[in-house]
Amino acid sequence: MLPSRRLISMVFAAAPIFLGGTFFEPLTGLGVVYVIFLLVYMVFDAVLLVRRRQITIEREIPERISLSVPVRIAFQVRNTSRRRLDIYLAEQLPVGLEAQPAQCSGTFDPRASGTLQYRLVARRRGRHLLNQLDVRILPRMGLFYRQYVVKMPAAVQVFPNLVDPKRYELMIRRGQPYEQGWARLRQVGQGSEFESLRYYLEGDDVSRIDWKATAKRSRVIVKNYEPQRQQNVLVALDLGRATAGEFQGVSRLDYLINATLMLAYVCLRQGDWFSLVAFSNRIENYLPPVRNLKSVERAARALYELEPRLVESDYDAACRFMGLKNRKRSLICLMTDIIDRQANADVLGYLARFARYHLPLLVTLTNPEIKMVADEPLSKCQDHYSKATALDVLAARQEALTAMRHQGVLVLDVEPKKLTLQLINRYLEIKTTRRL
What we know:
By secondary structure, this protein is an alpha/beta fold. The chain has 4 domains: 2-47; 52-159, Immunoglobulin-like (Sandwich), CATH 2.60.40.10; 163-226, no CATH class; 232-432, von Willebrand factor, type A domain (Rossmann fold). The chain has 11 helices and 20 strands. The protein has helices spanning 5-21, 26-47, 163-174, 211-217, 252-269, 296-303, 315-325, 341-354, 368-375, 384-406, 419-432; strands at residues 2-3, 55-60, 64-66, 71-79, 85-91, 97-100, 104-108, 113-122, 126-139, 144-159, 193-199, 221-226, 232-238, 246-247, 250-251, 273-279, 283-290, 330-335, 359-365, 410-414. The strands form 5 sheets. Strands 1, 3, 5, 7, 9 and 10 form a 6-stranded mixed sheet that branches. Strands 17-16-13-18-19-20 form a 6-stranded mixed sheet, sandwiched between helices. The protein has a 4-stranded antiparallel sheet with strand order 2-4-8-6, with no helix packed on it. Strand 16 (273-279) and strand 17 (283-290) form a beta hairpin. Helix 1 runs antiparallel to helix 2 (26-47), helix 5 (252-269) runs parallel beside helix 11 (419-432) and helix 8 packs parallel to helix 10 (384-406). The longest helix is centred in the last third of the chain and has 23 residues, at 384-406. It is elongated and about 100 Å long. It starts with a strand and ends with a helix. The model is unreliable at 185-191 (pLDDT under 50).
């Protein structure tokens, strides 16, 4: 039981009455009467204060949550008392989960029920436990809060971003992916298999127009053809110190994982085989080749609890493992970062070896903060040492990426927020040109 703002205001209201009594004596008696009335009111209100059992609360929470995507959490509240109540609820959230807003509240009439809700935002993947809910109740015209804790244990599974695949599928059905920046998948040569119909877009080959469908719909319709199927895509995800760090509150690894999940979805939708190796100084997880679109669930679970480790990655062990598990020619996407010259040389050596039998693609994230320091005019620079360091880091990075391109390694070096879109477009470009 806690005093409300109303009670605090009423207590402080007695001060000017007694202060006035020093100049006008009858006010002192009025102040005494006011205090007695307030004490009786407090006792009466405390006795009639709503009990815990008169309020029932049930939480509605989805089975899974996507990383950094706000999700609605609802509480079904029922007031079985005879008083009108203001009810305030606040979750005690573990690290990695945020409530927007931190507290939800509402007013409930006697014998009434309703819904209170807030938005839950997950900043870390994995399994989180929700346990305690802080409840605060204030009757209408009441002087005291009833405050207590309700134990409502529940597990929240935070997966990589599952919204992008659903959004991509919706755009495909509407024929809008190319308008949103996704690359158009063009099939070179003959012998393509019919896949679907869609509306004509500027630049489409006129020979692909379906005249019968166009006549029926009074709008130009073209045929979609499927590219070559059953190609192999293998993602090697570096969990070492190279991917530890954050960009704008989201870890490097989460950007890579979200892009990997989207790549898995598009690959499986195209009928290709998809597999995954996560490694640091050891093999952390392995997903064998899968092909059915329903296997996106397996890919999501393989990425579910991966966390970066502050260790040096063992590229040799990872490459030997991939060589043993993957004999067929594949697109091998190594997702890592270029952080020093020694690591650059190691990555270059292993990817150049893969280039003999496979098509390697190095995926790295540029650091906007380092680039901003390096691009700052010297006349306005306050920390010349930081600028020199940034220039040296960028020079070493560019040197490594150029050497990899000369060795036949494809390179995708983009800003974190553009990674997913650029990675999918690069994959579609590779399929278009039949480089596999």
